[in-house]
Specification:
Layout lengths: L1 E3 L2 E3 L18 H13 L6 H14 L4 H8 L3 H8 L4 H14 L4
Antiparallel strand pairs: 1-2
GO biological process, one term: DNA integration
Organism: Lysinibacillus fusiformis
Keywords: DNA recombination
């Protein structure tokens, strides 16, 4: 067992808690983002956009699609369907590499 704020935590205790050791509600993150969006007058800002950005960066950095899918709790097929556009630059690079290796005279 681990102790946080002098409280013994069990294996099945919540991961995210308030400073009063209460579990954070399932809609807390959405409420937080909506408050930030309103405060800073962001037109488009959501947890979904952050998720999409996170996955796009992982793919652009070469993380294997099956690993990305496992991290976000999705299938590799769904990741490919939704985030395949992130692979377009990598496909272009691969094509350019192949073209530079093949010299037809």
């Amino acid at each position: 067992m681990k102790k946080i704020y002098n409280v013994e935590l069990k294996e099945d205790d919540y991961l995210f808690i308030t400073d009063n050791l209460e579990p954070i509600s399932s809609n807390y993150i959405s409420k937080m983002f909506n408050a930030l969006k309103k405060k800073h007058d962001f037109e488009r800002f959501s947890t979904h956009i952050l998720r999409h950005t996170f996955v796009s960066i992982l793919i652009a950095e070469g993380t294997v699609v099956t690993t990305v899918a496992k991290i976000i709790g999705d299938t590799p097929e769904m990741v490919m369907r939704v985030y395949a556009h992130s692979l377009a630059d990598e496909e272009l690079k691969a094509t350019q590499i192949l073209s530079s290796l093949i010299k037809i005279e």
